[in-house]
Amino acid sequence: MALTLVASMFRSLLTPIAPFTWYDIPISTLDVLAVLRLCVVLQQLREVAQAEHRASRSSPTDDGSTEKRRRVQEEEKSFVKDATTALVVVYGGEAVVLPWLGTSPSFLFSPIVPGLYTFLTYVVESLPSILPMSLKTELPLSILDGFSHSYLLCDLIPPVVTTLTTRELADSPWTLLMLALVAPLMTGLYTLTTHTQPVWGAVHQDVYMLVHRTAVGGDGDREKGVQSVERETARAACVVLLMGLFITRTMKNFRGDYLHEILAGGLSKKVKIRPKVDGKPYRGKVKTQ
Fold first, then answer.
1. Which domain holds residue 21?
2. Which residues form the signal peptide (predicted)?
3. Which residue has the higher pLDDT, 276 or 156?
4. Which among 64, 120, 128, 269 is placed 20 to 30 Å from 8, CA to CA?
5. Could you tell me if residue 248 is inside a domain?
6. What is the dihedral of CA 111, 114, 116, 120, to 10 degrees?
7. Within a domain: residue 65?
């Protein structure tokens, strides 16, 4: 039931939206949210780096002087540099790997997605301020990260390998997992259950026999074989697993700061003194909040 709900949400997120559909451009809600998420994260990291640089300029050196650090000027903001950084993060991997596989990077076929990254980078930089990374912001965004990364690992990477003209590469599980270097376990799980390549069907059969022999005993019905899982169901399972991993990472990275914030807020209570009640001096107990 849960996987069915996730699969339905995934289909809705992958539906092309206006105004892109007016020009027959297949840009979906998930595409826009994923691009915006990356642009915001890059801007947050830049602001953290700038804050650390300003702090280092005001801190004394080994000889107790701050003059040397103050001479190091802060680098001026550059939209071209920031947009280029976003494009390198997105397309750097495929620009290096895909020529070795005899195919061209995706940004050479259409300027739509690179233009979307460039435009949203400009939009994010134009905002007066953005929230810093914290448990309150990153925890709900872990759900979005689960969907966007599953789309990358299950829908974008496997077809690149399976449609290669060289059959040795198209049928090679090593090529598929190496291309998904960011998360080979998740891509491997998806291809194992969906039999994306012929070898994965045999591996799935062996894994099933091993689990059946360990849990029940015997080899099970070998002649019947193991059926592949529907792609949407396997992708939904990857979404749930990735959500759990991202939530765990968020809790690990930001839990300490959040607890410190709560404790600091609880210890520093403000005292509110009511000077008068009904026009008369208030002589009751002091009320804290």
1. 2-60+76-288
2. 1-19
3. 156
4. 120
5. yes
6. -150
7. no
Distance CA 189, CA 178 (A): 14
Q: Tell me phi and psi for residue 102, to 5 degrees.
A: 80, 25
Domain count, the chain: 1
Is 200 within 8 Å of 192 (Cβ atoms)?
yes
- CA quadruple 24, 233, 176, 32: dihedral sign: positive
pTM here? 0.80
Helices (H) and strands (E) in the chain, counts: 12, 4
- Among candidate residues 157, 243, 246, 247, the one with its CA nearest the CA of residue 194: 157
- Rounded-to-integer distance, Cα 3 and Cα 42, Å: 31
Residue 256 scores a pLDDT above 50: yes
- Is 116 inside any structural domain? yes
Binning pLDDT at 50, 70 and 90, where does residue 179 land?
A: confident
Measure the CA–CA gap between 224 and 246, rounded to whole angstroms. 38
Amino acid found at 216: V
Query: Which among 158, 156, 144 has a CA at the least distance from the CA of 239?
Result: 144
169-188 burial: b if 16+ Cβ within 10 Å, else e: bbbbbebbbebbeebbebbb
Percent of the chain with pLDDT over 70: 80
Specify the range with the lowest mean pLDDT, choosing from 131-145, 154-168, 247-261. Answer: 247-261
In Å, what is the CA distance from 18 to each residue of 10, 15, 30, 164? 18, 10, 13, 33
How far is Cα 33 from Cα 129, in angstroms, rounded to an integer?
A: 19
Rounded CA-CA distance 215/276 in Å is 75
